[in-house]
Amino acid sequence: MxxxxxxxxxxxxIFLGLLLILVILISITMGSVKVPALxxxxxxxxxxxxxxxxxxxxxxxxILSLRLPRAVLAGLVGAGLSVSGxxxxxxxxxxxxxxxxxxxxxxxxxxxxxAILLGLGTFSFGLPLASFLGALLTILIVxxxxxxxxxxxxxxxxxxxxxxxxxxxxxxxxxxxxxxKEELHTIIFWLMGxxxxxxxxxxxxxxxxxxxxxxxxxxxxxxxxxxLSGEENAVQLGVDVERLKxxxxxxxxxxxxxxxxxxxxxxxxGLIVPHAVRLIFGxxxxxxxxxxxxxxxxxxxxxxxVARTLLAPTELPVGVITAAFGGPFFIYLLRTRKAVKTL
Amino acid sequence: MKEQCPDGTEKTICGIQGNxxxxxxxxxxxxxxxxxxxxxxxxxxxxxxxxxxxKIGAGMxxxxxxxxxxxxxxxxxxxxxxxxxxxxxTFSFPPRRIVSLxxxxxETLFSLGLDEEVVGVSIHCNxxxxxxxxxxxxxxxxxxxxxxxxxxxxxxxxxxAGNTRDMVDRLRKLGFPAYVIYPKNFDDILRSILHMxxxxxxxxxxxxxxxxxxxxxQRVIELTKGLPRPKVFIQIxxxxxVTVGKGSFADDLIRLAGGKNIAGxxxxxxxxxxxxxxxxxxxxxxxxxxxNPKGDYQKILREWNQWETIPAVKYGRIHLIDSDLLDRPSxxxxxxxxxxxxxxxxxxxxx
Lengths: 343, 351
Known about the structure:
The complex is a heterodimer of chains A (343) and B (351). In chain A, 74% of the residues lie in helices and 1% in strands. In chain A, strand 1 (147-148) and strand 2 (151-152) form a beta hairpin. Chain A is built from 14 helices and 2 strands; from the N terminus they run αααααββααααααααα. Chain B has 351 residues and is of the alpha/beta class. Chain B starts with a strand and ends in a 7-residue tail after the last helix. Chain B has 13 helices and 13 strands. Chain B has helices spanning 22-33, 53-74, 103-111, 145-151, 165-173, 186-199, 203-224, 249-256, 275-281, 297-305, 311-314, 323-327, 333-344; strands at residues 3-4, 10-11, 77-82, 88-93, 98-100, 118-120, 155-159, 178-181, 231-237, 242-243, 260-261, 285-288, 318-320. Chain B has 3 domains: 3-38, no CATH class; 77-201, Nitrogenase molybdenum iron protein domain (Rossmann fold, 3-Layer(aba) Sandwich), CATH 3.40.50; 228-349, Nitrogenase molybdenum iron protein domain (Rossmann fold, 3-Layer(aba) Sandwich). The longest helix of chain B has 22 residues, at 53-74. Classes of the chains: A mainly alpha (343), B alpha/beta (351).
């Protein structure tokens, strides 16, 4: 059993942080257009220093306005989804939980599809806003049904989430069946998850939610550890279980809502990354949460880079890559670490 | 008493076959024996107008013409044509109830003067105005077979670029003759219009229309001959960014209008491009031809204006052309060609 000390957390975080920076640097040198690696990096550093230079206008536009925002956004979403997944796995005490298990993603999808069908995409934020509202509405409904006598019952919540999620999925299929060819393309593209529109504005919008959610959850890591052994035990050990559940569920759902409304449904990240981190670094949330965030960020940036370069100039949906690489890698981890440390 | 008959047999009375009733035989015998009764009672032609051979000939010709006309009008003859995908289609000719399964077919039929004969159109058919009030039978991929049956069409026309083979097979199995056109480039469009003209008995009109189209396209080619070809990007999709590759009509139009399609070497008909590719290929003219009717030109323009390194953005050469004109294989494709040419070479096309 690994003992987690503050020193250990800091050391591992620095290590993973450096790994993340490396992944970002590699990702900006790769793309459908060939820009020499050193030049890309030079452009990046020149712009950090506030200088203009390093390459011609087109190259600078490609690196700074396309690849960099994309990497940052993918990193934020990857971190958010991983932390959210880890939280749901702890709160529901279920290894199959992922950020989408309570139907938040379906709510976001319905919001987005309605926006596309009603033509709200013409407003700058029409689509992400509608999607976010859809997600929020779903969270409220699921919580309304999951809370009884002022207490949140994990099983009831889970059931409510799954049922409402299924209903919303049926609604999605209905919308798909009645939409026209052109709208259909946009809808399906959104549902598969996409980072191609990434820009500074999107980053600024989603950053506060991810940061807030992360902090709220990280500060409760010790309590999350305790709730793993059961709610009665946690109460006896001094944890305000109801408050913990409320704040944690809401934070995790908010992170998920923000992520999905900005880039569509990207699966596998929230499920696999927490498990992989648990297998390598242990289940202590004081380490699990920051580590999941950093590893999730690296993983999604890498997946997105592969998605846009493998069959250039065609872009694959990033969800395809996360599944294709995440699955086998996870199997490898299972085999080399012998047992999945059950929650 | 038997007599010897001219045909060599021995009978009671010659001219009678077998045995007959004796009384009638007797009567006949009487009349045969009596020379006076041999004189025919009715004189040939007595009481009737004289039928000269010429009159008979004229009368018969007239009668046969009338019969043929009557037959062809009330019972149209069936004819067999071979459609553009090589199948034999048999239907009553000329067809008087036609269903069109695609907007380009509807436009062509209306331009051939078949306003009344068209009894059903697809939900995408939006031109001309009259077409919008015709009964709808379905989309490119989903047909209302009951509706089609209730319309009792003589002929259904479908297009290989849009309708599915499965759909056409099912129509045939239900007993409907389905003629499939399959134009793949500008010249094919002219050919398809001529085929459709044959099939609906409007060959003259079809020839006039294609002649007009040929003349106008020739004029465009002449006016743009020798000019440098600007690099063009035609955007037909917003999210994701979709353009036109080799094999699409718009690509052909770019070539004819004196431009160079930056996606012209892509194998897919509608390739998806990332912004990186567009930045690299730096088009000088961007044509927005969004198929999404709710798409907002202003918003798309704003999105393009972020990328000032693209020549088209820098010099404000971003234009909007109705996608129905650029990508629909109908007579209006020439309108699209002329608009495109005007956008690519404005100096040559000043009014």
